[in-house]
Amino acid sequence: MIRNAFTEAFGIQHPIVQGGMQWVATAELAAAVSNAGGLGLISALTQPTPQHLADEIARCRKLTDKPFGVNLTILPSISPPPYAEYRQAIIDSGVTIVETAGSNPAPHVAAFKAAGVRVLHKCTSVRHAVKAQSLQVDAVSIDGFECAGHPGEDDVPGLVLIPAAARKLTVPVVASGGFADGRGLVAALALGASGISMGTRFMCTVESPIHQNIKEAIVQASERDTELIFRPLRNTARVAANTVSRKVAQVLSSGGQFEDVRDLVAGSRGRRVYELGDPDAGIWTVGQVQGLIEDIPTCAELISRILREARAILTDHLPALLQKASAPIPAGR
Ligand SMILES: Cc1cc2nc3c(=O)[nH]c(=O)nc-3n(C[C@H](O)[C@H](O)[C@H](O)COP(=O)(O)O)c2cc1C
Questions:
Q1: CA-CA distance, 275 to 211, in Å (whole number)?
Q2: Cα(80) to centroid(ligand 1), Å
Q3: 48 pLDDT higher than 90
Q4: Of 46, 11, 44, residue with least CA distance to 274
Q5: Which of 16, 17, 22, 283 to mutate to test the pocket of ligand 1 (most atoms within 8 A of CB)?
Q6: Which of 54, 65, 278, 316 is the most buried (most CB within 10 A)?
Q7: Which of 225, 282, 229 is nearest to 252 (CA)?
């Protein structure tokens, strides 16, 4: 049992969060994670309208009586979704936990806080984490360069970013990007975080609503099988390496503009990947941690395994190392 300021503040049993995932984080997945004692999050913008989000929240509530939340990703867009209406749907539905992500959560935090919603803000740099803390968020999730999705433009991996954030913040820090097992959880705690958030690992579980072929593709893939796209546009995204992402990266790095890749990166194509199970149908998001993923467990199996592994490391493996270190070194060696 690992309890700390984060689990207390968010009312969860284990310090394990399922990050928001477009097209993946539906009520089934969020409820499965929450039922297993973690924090499941529904992705707001996977739902086409605020009313659909309200319905999805109601569906999740039927699937679990444990705390769950909603991820609201705020991205720059030519025709932005009605964020204020999504925010109101979250508040009206009585959800008490929100993960904000994508850009400055300032326009939303005050309304959430006034409604008694706890805010976990996800970002990719210490300066943005400090800014979010000044807005009174309740915790910060920090995504290292290895993460799936948008790692930002600083390219600082978790091994440096997590302790750098923990050193500067007083609110709990959740380590995100590259976590899949008990070793990762213990490492995150050692680096000063209060818990872990996982995207790719939860995407490859029984309850994840994507096609079985894609889960199996994740199991087969190595840590080298991701591609960074949109680098020249300063909107970097880490996605699965496939024929489409390699083409996008090549067009943009040789001077192409967004217009030249618009059709290749269309969300509708990416969605087909998950629906049809064709990993080359479009752009889809995945992290380097896929190289550590070897199976497709239920969320309950996964969370209990992570806790079991973490406990064994903390109570057996590391103490045994300390004992060895304090034993006298035999002469002549
Ligand atoms: C398929 C997929 C879709 C994602 N979509 C979103 C999203 O819409 N909003 C968001 O804030 N993060 C999104 N993420 C990022 C995750 O919430 C999380 O920060 C990231 O996966 C952590 O890295 P990991 O995959 O190594 O665990 C997505 C990740 C995946 C794998």
A1: 6
A2: 20
A3: yes
A4: 46
A5: 22
A6: 54
A7: 229
Token digits of residue 226: 């991701």
Helix (H) or strand (E) holding 83: helix 83-92
Q: What are phi and psi of 253, to 5 degrees?
A: -75, -15
Q: How confident is the model at residue 332 (pLDDT cuts 50, 70, 90)?
A: low
Query: 26 in ligand 1 pocket by Cβ < 6 Å?
Result: no
What confidence tens digit (pLDDT) does each residue in 94-123 have?
Answer: 999 999 999 999 999 999 999 999 999 999
Ramachandran angles phi, psi of 63, nearest 5°: -90, -15
Confirm or reject: Cβ of 184 under 6 Å from ligand 1: no
Domain boundaries, the chain: 5-209+297-318, 212-288
Kindly state the average pLDDT of the residues 139-164.
98
5-209+297-318 to CATH, choices 3.40.470.10, 3.20.20.70, 3.30.70.270, 3.40.630.30: 3.20.20.70
**Ligand 1 contacts CB of residue 148 (under 6 A):** yes
- 239 Cα to the center of ligand 1, angstroms: 10
14, two tokens: 């284990």
Q: Is the CB of 177 under 6 A from ligand 1?
A: yes
> Is the Cβ atom of 179 under 6 angstroms away from ligand 1?
yes
**Which H helix or E strand runs over 8?**
helix 5-10
What does pTM read for this prediction? 0.97
Q: Confirm or reject: Cβ of 227 under 6 Å from ligand 1.
A: no
Atom of ligand 1 at shortest range from CA of 210: 1
Other CB atoms within 10 Å distance of the CB of residue 287: 32
Q: What is the 317 CA–ligand 1 centroid distance (Å)?
A: 31
Strands 237-240, 195-198: pairing kind: unpaired
